[in-house]
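INFO  loader      accepted 1 record
INFO  loader      residues=231
INFO  predictor   begin
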Amino acid sequence: MAHSVASNTYAESRGRLEQYFDQTARKAWEDLTSDVPVSGIRATVRAGRDEMRGLLLSTLPTDMHGMRLLDAGCGTGALAIAAAERGAEVVAIDVSQGLIDVAARRAPEGLSIDWRVGDMRDRSLGIFDHVIAMDSLIHYEMMDVVGVLDAWSGRTNHIAFTFAPGTLMLRAMHMAGKLFPRSDRSPAIKPIAEASLSRAIDTALPEWQVDFTKRVSSGFYKSQAMGVSRR
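INFO  predictor   done
INFO  writer      dumping tokens
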């Protein structure tokens, strides 16, 4: 697959995310990913994110000593920290310097985590045993998602990621703009039909297979995990 096919839309989406998290919503996301009280809507999002993080972590070995993991779109770092506590050498990258600052401050001492600000596709990050991308691809068009998977495909044998499921309910919520309050609404979420995504992966990455898909639904949090691996 040619990486340039979706480069314009990828760059535009990435730019919107960087601006949103660094200029608009850093404090809101810092609170959401902490233990401070939040509104009812945000409480459902927090619970859903906790469930999804647990699901993605369940796809990883419990003992990760000697393994490298890429946490792509690490946000405030909860998943990266959990993987590092299992012994993994973690590279945790995000578009937002502000979120990386929060993550690095929260991380316990003694863990092997390389906090980075940049593009999650960056080949200079190296080779990994596992790549995890929790809710970092939900703002991208389907072919951009496949393009990111393609960028990782030569540097790992296992990827677990999430996408916004193309359900009627989520599409209605998306169209109505009700996923977040207007004051700090995130960049548009791009619902994707699971069957279409699976076909696109089969076409673009014929040496890879879909291992599992599982949806997490908690109030206003709707996200679907998918695991793919080399055949």
